[in-house]
Write a structure and sequence with these properties.
Layout (H helix, E strand, L loop, with lengths): L3 H12 L3 H4 L6 H17 L4 H7 L5 H17 L1 H16 L4 H14 L8 H17 L6 H11 L6
Protein name: Chromosomal replication initiator DnaA C-terminal domain-containing protein
InterPro entries: DnaA_C, Trp_repressor/repl_initiator
GO molecular function, one term: ATP binding
């Protein structure tokens, strides 16, 4: 299984879209379909629960996550060109390497949350994922400092000032 932060960063890189846009309220096809694809990949390539996936993609509820999963599945089944696109995205995500600055931040975040502890409560996983996501965002050279801070706060479930 893959690290959720790696999947998120790879999808953002593939679509050349900022995490803050991907998880925001945007409903244009240029935003929605990459978001649906991210949800599908988080569901199939990570151990994240439906609820954790919803939190990672901007605090969406489980019914929204399930609807996204269904949309991608239906489109892959019905549209050969889209199926090819999604297959290319899956290969890209599988081979994606996180930038060194993000790896350093991820390592620190993992140490903070004690990743791998078997006795951690279920909420600790969601908290850990949020911390890892925030660390990845803050290490992103594509975002300005203000954008990175805002996106990291949103990933942590806090309102950006």
């Amino acid at each position: 299984m893959m690290d959720p932060s790696r999947v998120i960063e790879a999808v953002c890189a593939f679509h050349e879209i900022a995490y803050v846009d991907l998880t925001g309220p945007g409903k244009t096809p240029q935003i929605c379909w990459p978001r649906h694809e991210l949800i599908r990949l988080l569901n199939t390539k990570t151990t994240c629960s439906i609820m954790a996936i919803g939190r990672l993609v901007g605090g969406r509820d489980s019914s929204t996550v399930r609807a996204s999963l269904n949309q991608v599945q239906r489109r892959v089944t019905e549209d050969l060109a889209y199926a090819e696109h999604f297959w290319r995205l899956e290969r890209f995500v599988a081979s994606y390497e996180i930038r060194p600055s993000a790896v350093t931040a991820l390592t620190r975040a993992r140490r903070l949350i004690g990743k791998g502890a078997n006795d951690a409560p279920a909420d600790a996983e969601a908290c850990g994922i949020a911390l890892l996501t925030a660390a990845t965002i803050l290490g992103s050279p594509e975002l300005s400092d203000a954008e990175a801070r805002r996106a990291a706060l949103l990933a942590l479930g806090q309102t950006a000032a």
